[in-house]
Amino acid sequence: MKTFLFDIGNVLTNFDFQKLLQAYSDHSGRSLEPQSDRDEEMYVSVEKGLLSEADYVAYLNEAKGLNWTTDNLHLIWQEIFSLNETGNRLFDKAKRSDARVYTLSNIADYHIRAIENNWNGFFEGTTGLFMSYRMGVRKPDPRIYEMVLKELGVSGSQCFFIDDLAENVATAREQGIEAHQFIPENYEEIERKAHDFFGW
């Protein structure tokens, strides 16, 4: 059976990472600073499920001069996320079709909570969710695509995948997946190709 795989960030929900950096500044009273290498390392660790949400917040409090709880983290991300209309139109159409519908996203549990707090039932109607923090690996590591295909029990040619990052698309294609970079200049073409792939 054909399967539609959706990235979440900048596909189903838009986000601006600069807003997170601004929140650090606003809540700490410090000047705006770029994401450091250590910040990125810790962010990735949460998305791989190697670091708990509570430990991540403790790191942020120490590194950024904050006094946050996990609730603060959820609320900040609720403010950061907004809906991508094109991505959600495809998402809704796929869920109403005969296709299997999954997410495949580099994501942490607090991101999921923020999305569901913003839009109750957001993931209802999907067949399942492939999320990096549960899988212990992030895109574009080839292992995550191998795990997905094994779980689905299909070849890559039976999967249609959209992601905003070129490197994630490239690695998916190496696994035989029909993958497309979901950026504004490609939106119309991707909608046409999805319709052709699924026979809509």
Per-chain topology:
Blueprint: E1 3-6, E2 13-14, H1 17-28, H2 37-47, H3 53-64, H4 70-80, E3 82-83, H5 85-96, E4 100-105, H6 109-118, E5 128-131, H7 132-135, H8 142-152, E6 159-163, H9 166-174, E7 178-181, H10 187-198
Parallel strand pairs: 1-4, 1-6, 4-5, 6-7
Antiparallel strand pairs: 2-3
Helix pairs in contact: 2-3, 4-6
Your description of this structure?
This is HAD family phosphatase. It holds the Pfam family Hydrolase. It comes from Pontiella agarivorans. InterPro entries: HAD-like_sf, HAD-SF_hydro_IA, HAD_sf, PGP-like_dom2. With 200 residues, this protein is an alpha/beta fold. Helix content is 52%, strand content 14%. It has helices at 17-28, 37-47, 53-64, 70-80, 85-96, 109-118, 132-135, 142-152, 166-174, 187-198; strands at residues 3-6, 13-14, 82-83, 100-105, 128-131, 159-163, 178-181. The strands form two sheets. A five-stranded parallel sheet has the order 5-4-1-6-7, with helices on both faces. It starts with a strand and ends with a helix. The mean pLDDT is 97.
